[in-house]
Design goal:
The N and C termini lie far apart (92 Å). The longest helix is centred in the N-terminal third of the chain and has 22 residues. By secondary structure, this protein is an alpha+beta fold.
């Protein structure tokens, strides 16, 4: 018969609690309170359609207009830039950290091909609104010639 030492069972219980906490972080809707990530982050967006346009609303609090780049090609839209920490160089200890800093990029496949030249963008109060006119499908009769 195998006899477990008492301190070994406490180690297993501690590991089990750590795993449950880790899995809870993965499955919870809200990310852990403190997250340090050097990778690019993606801003939140809404995309909706009207009869003539596709509209994309992007949440970009803390950025200046000149720090945002918008690229449209065919049915693709890319928004990129960088949110810089406004208190750089100040020594501080965080109790909670949810605001993501650093470079960001968000690519979107639009549901239709849009007119890149007619696209307009407006930035106010931390929200970027991109209005993309839909390209009208033109029906054209093609003449068939003898070869």
């Amino acid at each position: 018969m195998v006899e477990l030492r008492r301190d070994w069972s406490e180690v297993i219980i501690t590991i089990q609690q750590d795993m449950e906490r880790l899995l809870g972080d993965f499955t919870s809707r809200k990310p852990p309170s403190v997250r340090f990530s050097p990778r690019a982050w993606e801003p939140n967006i809404d995309v909706y359609e009207t009869a003539d346009e596709i509209v994309v609303l992007v949440e970009l609090a803390g950025l200046k207009q000149e720090e945002i780049e918008v690229v449209v090609q065919g049915n693709s839209l890319v928004i990129r830039g960088e949110r810089r920490d406004i208190k750089q160089g100040i020594r501080r200890s965080y109790y909670q950290m949810e605001i993501l800093w650093g470079p960001f990029e968000r690519g979107i496949t639009l549901p239709v091909v849009v007119d890149a030249d007619g696209t307009k963008a407006y930035y106010e109060a931390g929200f970027l609104e991109i209005v993309l006119p839909k390209l009208r499908e033109e029906t054209r009769r093609v003449e068939i010639k003898l070869a």
